[in-house]
Every structure is written in structure tokens, then in C-alpha cells.
Amino acid sequence: MKFLKLPLSAEEKRALHAGDAVCLSGTIYTARDCAHRRIFELLDADMPLPFSLKDAFIYYAGPCPAPAGKPVGSCGPTTSARMNMFAPRLLKLGLGGMIGKGEMSEEVRRTIAECGAVYFAAVGGAGAIYGNCIKKSDCVAFPDLLSEAVYRFEAENLPLVVAIDSAGNCIYP
Amino acid sequence: MRSISTQQIADCVYRLARRAGLTLTEPCREALKRAAEAESGAAKFALETILENETVAKRENLPVCQDTGMAVVLLEIGQDVALTGEPLQNAVDDGVRRAYRDGYFRKSLCDPLTRVNTGDNTPAHVHVDIVGGDHVRVTFLAKGFGSENMSRLAMLTPAEGREGILRTIVEAVAGAGSRPCPPVVVGVGIGGSFDSCALLAKKALTRDIGTRNAREDVAAIEREALSRINALGIGAQGFGGKVTALDVLCEIAPTHIAGLPVAVNMQCHCVRCEKEEL
Questions:
Q1: Residue A143: its chain B contacts at CB < 8 A?
Q2: Residue among B94, B104, B34 nearest B68 (CA)
């Protein structure tokens, strides 16, 4: 098990191989379908984004509401494949990588390799464990989208598997 | 005639929804334990994480999965029951609304075009069967959509027969790959019409894992489909392995002489289904 702290250097990413189990800590941003659509509208209009894409990690997730005393409720990953159409452009703009669940397209795999990024798989259906790893949460954009808004999380020890590494190797058959 | 207030049904839906969000069904948990023992590597890691997750959910009073689902409510209403009070749909929605608010569950329903959230996870998807007797049987299924998205319906020809049914089931799981959160549970409707076939598949998902259809020829399809699916090698979370499905559950109904509808309703490993009889 490797322990990693975001942001990841190019060297740290190169040392990761598809299938490696890691514990990831640091700042991540949630975005699902609707938030991606909004981000693309901002990019198309040349407007500033709610967070800098450079070396950032997007977590494909939409949390449950936070109970009293917790920053967030359950928060496991959603199906990454729905973001196949969004990921390549963001990676080319400097996104460090993504966290989600399940396979992504061949185009995404290729772009990850071209950009030296990395895609981590969280375990789908383990929402309580991942929610518990989030120590701080702030809504940074699109609050009207509720659980689909963009949240900045401070995460501690997210249990993940390297699904597509920076060389383009993929854990999915 | 027995009088049952729809308020009782609302309160029952509330109880079942609260419980469903936080726990897996016992047969599901046992099947996951067996799968974890059978696997190695990343698939084993995923299964052990899933099992540990339920412990964390219980301890922290958090939903097991953040996709607390679309509220599917199946009602069997005895025809000797007189329902009183608010209209039935309103009552069920009231139970769902309160459960999703008090349980800090995610509100996951929205308008399909504007994508504006309905704000309280209503309307519930209510299916009613009028049966004999004076009871009301309530089944609550919290249905996640990562798996629902991977469902399909095929209008086969009669000539495609048993092999066509098996092919449809296995191809649905193969095509879904890692996306529906395997190991999956596969609900299958065989027969009926375009609409009722899909409902059969959904109802199949409310059966316990490990139970077989009472008809031996249908049970044989369940066994055969499960064996072919687990030969695909997709494994837990798509990480590769022997357990791609925990079970295949089929329901059957007469159909038209011209057709053979087959519906495949996919369920992730996180089976959250609770039942109660009033």
C-alpha cells in the first residue's frame, strides 16, 4: 500500500502502476455530469473556472447531505464512463487526474498517457468509508445543483486502486 | 373488511427506507463474504472494502452508498382492505420524503430535461398488485442508477427461445463490464409485454439472493446464466475475477404467441431491499 499526498509530481505519477493499491490524501474536487456541462460552458465562453485545473484531481461523486458534526455524508464514486466525453479536454488543460469507478474509454486512456495523468478507481458502493475520509468540504460552484455541485474536499487516506497509470496501462480487461 | 390508513403505509415506507439505506440484505452480505473468500488481488480488496463499508456505515450512521437510490415501492394490497386517509401515492411519497430527509440520504431525482432536482427524492415509483386477503405487504427497494443504466429489454422472436434468453442476459452483463458496480445481481423478466416484462425484472430483484424460481425450467436458466456470467472474468468492480454476479433471479409470465420479451434489470452488489406486512 502506497501513501500519497496531492498534488502528485510527474515522478510520483510515473511510479504508479495499474493495479497498485494506494491511500490518497489532499485536495480534490467533486464533479458529475451536470457540473461538467457547466464547466464546459464556462470554458467555451472563456470565463474563469471555479477551481484551477492545473494538477487538480476531480472526484466523480455526489455526496449525501452532511449529518450534524460531519463535513459530508456518504460519498463513494459514481460511474466514470459517463464522463468519457468530458475528461480528454480537461486533461489537456492540465488536470492531474480523476477518481471514479469503472472503465473509461480508449480516448480517455490515450489522453491520460499523453498527458502523464492518472485515473484512480475507488470502490463503488463503499460510500460510508469514503465519506468518512473527507475531513473538510466547501461548495465552490453551482450550489443549485445540490449533490451535483462542485465541492472542494480535504481527503485523508482514500483507499484507491490505480486503474489507468500515466503510461496508459489499464486494470480493466 | 379491514381498514388500513394510508398513514400506516407512509410510516411503514419510512421505516423500511431508513433501514434499507444503512444495511445490505443478509443474503447479499453472505454472498459478498463468499465472494471475498473466493477472490484474490484487487477484486478481493474491493470485496473486503465493501464488507468493511457496511460496518462503518452502521457505526457512523451513514448510508452504505451515497446513491441512496430511486425509491421503488411494491405494494400487495389485499382486496378485503379498505384504505383510508390521504391518497396512496401521496402517503408513500410522504414516507419517502421524511426518510430521505431524516436519514441524510441523497435526493437523486430530477426532471429528465431540465435536470432540476425534485428536492426530496419523490415521486416514489409505486407498483400496486391487488391480491386476496386483508393484508398490505410493502416492499421497499432503494434502486441505484449506475446499475439501472446498464439494464436492457429485448423483444426476441419465439424461435430464439431459451438460448436467446441466456444470450440476452449474458450480453447485458458483458456489455456493462465494470460500470454497474459488479458483482451484480441480475433481475430478469421473461414474457409478458414490453412494459410488464420490465416490471417482472424489477420484481425479481426483490427476491432473496440464493432463492430459485419455483419452476424447474426457469431455475435452470437462472443457474445456467449465473455460471456463464461468472465465466466472463469481469470480477468485483471490473478488477478481474471469478465472481461477476452474485445471482441471477428470473420471473416469468405468459406472453403473446408472436413474441418473447426479455428484460434484464441490473442491480449493483449493494442490495438494499426491506419488506414488511401490515
A1: none
A2: B104
